[in-house]
Specification:
38% of the residues are buried. By secondary structure, this protein is an alpha/beta fold. Strand 3, helix 2 and strand 4 form a beta-alpha-beta unit.
Length: 242
């Protein structure tokens, strides 16, 4: 599959993407700006895709080590290339494996933070993309929300954080699955296309073994009110600043 090279102003990074396969959206940008990372943290990304999230977090934070786990072969290979392209080999590594097998290749309770932009939809929800790469990235063809959260639970130290971007309509499932796994929801931000529109996505951070108490942050609006269909809001534009 042919790749194209793109420059991203945020973090001043370069990324190879599939010309015709799965391409990242704004979601990892929103998640990278939402997550709270401390210097020296060890971070895992479940479903790393082309590696955009670990590469971004390596450039934007003082994280000591970042591990991206990706099942699809071509995406994992592209992620490795993107790590090298941005000279981050000493801090970022890519594991080509299934997040459902995480116990086989990562020791438990070794991560300070786990992040994920997981597939949003059931296999029987919506039209499955004809391209396998896109289908697996968008639909739960190789593990759904419970499997991603189980992997996060295994990886996280007690008190470690799990940050995720997910469909707003599936927020109840996200909350109940986190609580059942012993990851207490702590921060929530609703993501709206624009002011006056219903939320489509949520940004959520939980803490393994955390105490109950959820902070609901101000809503995030992707596009300007009254602007063109693709005219980003001032807040989103600031997210893309280097």
């Amino acid at each position: 599959m042919a790749d194209i090279l793109e420059n991203l102003s945020i973090g001043n990074i370069q990324l190879l993407q599939a010309k015709n396969g799965y391409r990242y959206s704004i979601d990892p940008i929103l998640l990278a700006r939402f997550v709270q990372v401390k210097a020296g943290d060890r971070i895992a990304d479940l479903g790393a895709g082309c590696g955009i999230l670990p590469v971004l977090l390596a450039q934007l934070t003082g994280a000591a080590e970042l591990v991206g786990i990706e099942l699809q072969t071509e995406l994992a290979e592209r992620a490795v290339k993107n790590v090298v392209l941005n000279s981050l080999q000493e801090r970022v590594s890519i594991v080509h494996d299934d997040i459902r097998n995480v116990r086989n290749f990562v020791k438990p309770a070794t991560m300070d933070m786990v992040v994920s932009n997981p597939p949003y939809r059931h296999p029987d929800s919506g039209r499955i993309a004809p391209n396998d790469e896109r289908a697996a990235a968008r639909h739960e063809l190789a593990g759904g929300l419970p499997e991603f959260i189980a992997a996060a639970k295994w990886l996280l130290k007690n008190g470690g954080g799990f940050a995720v971007i997910y469909l707003a309509e599936r927020l109840p499932k996200l909350l109940t699955t986190l609580v059942a796994a012993g990851i207490e929801p702590k921060r929530l931000r609703m993501v709206h296309p624009r002011y006056g529109a219903e939320a489509k996505l949520v940004l959520l951070e939980g803490r393994k073994g955390g105490r109950p108490g959820l902070q609901v942050e101000p809503p995030l609006f992707i596009y300007k009110t009254g602007g063109s269909e693709r005219e980003y809001s001032e807040e989103v534009l600031r997210m893309y600043d280097a």
